[in-house]
Amino acid sequence: MEVPWTCRWAAVPFTIGSVNGFLDGWLARKDGLVTNFGALMEPLMEKVVTCLAFVILAVAVVIPAWVGCAVWPREFLITGLRILPATHGGALSADRFGK
Questions:
Q1: Dihedrals φ, ψ of 35, to 5°?
Q2: Whether the Cβ atoms of residue 33 and residue 1 lie closer than 8 Å to each other
Q3: Residue 95, strand partner residues
Q4: Mind listing the pLDDT tens digit for each residue in 65-94?
Q5: Helix (H) or strand (E) holding 88
Q6: Where in the chain are the domains?
Q7: How many CB atoms lie within 10 A of CB 54?
Q8: Of 37, 38, 50, 36, residue with least CA distance to 78
Q9: How many CA atoms within 13 Å lie on the side-chain side of 14?
Q10: How far apart are CA 17 and CA 42, in angstroms?
Q11: pLDDT tens digits for 2-47?
């Protein structure tokens, strides 16, 4: 099955983000460099990468634009809800059903 070039372009931010997230997390834990800033920015950047892929797919008319418009608020809402407890010393971690 031939994969359209637009899907390949949409995979680029996912691939870069995945490799970057893995290396960043691995190095931070290995060297004990876990920071509050990193804990805040890492999930936020994951959401930006996800939204970028949806924009690429919507612009290329691989998916309807409304799909991206429905996903973006959800992604940032979940991130915001996870950040709120962190600002008060708590955590809202993922369980077996997801975030």
A1: -125, 160
A2: no
A3: 98
A4: 888 788 888 877 877 777 777 666 665 555
A5: none
A6: 5-87
A7: 21
A8: 50
A9: 11
A10: 10
A11: 656 767 777 787 788 788 878 887 888 888 877 777 777 777 788 8
- Residue 17: name the closest of 39, 50, 41 by CA: 50
Residues 6+ apart with CB under 8 A from 42: 21, 24, 25
User: If DSSP codes are grouped into helix, strand and coil, which group holds residue 90?
Assistant: coil
Tell me, letter by letter, the H, E, C secondary structure of 57-81. Answer: HHHCCCCCHHHHHHHHHHHHHHHHH
Only one residue has tokens 């070039």, namely 5
Orientation angle between helical segments 65-87 and 36-59, nearest 10 degrees: 170
pLDDT of the residue at 74? 82
Q: What is the pLDDT of residue 22?
A: 82
In the predicted structure, residue 97 carries a pLDDT above the cut 70: no
Q: Which of 55, 41, 42 is closest to 13 using CA atoms?
A: 55
Residue whose pair of structure tokens reads 């962190």 in the numeric block: 86
Is residue 49 a contact partner of residue 71, using CB atoms and an 8 Å limit?
no
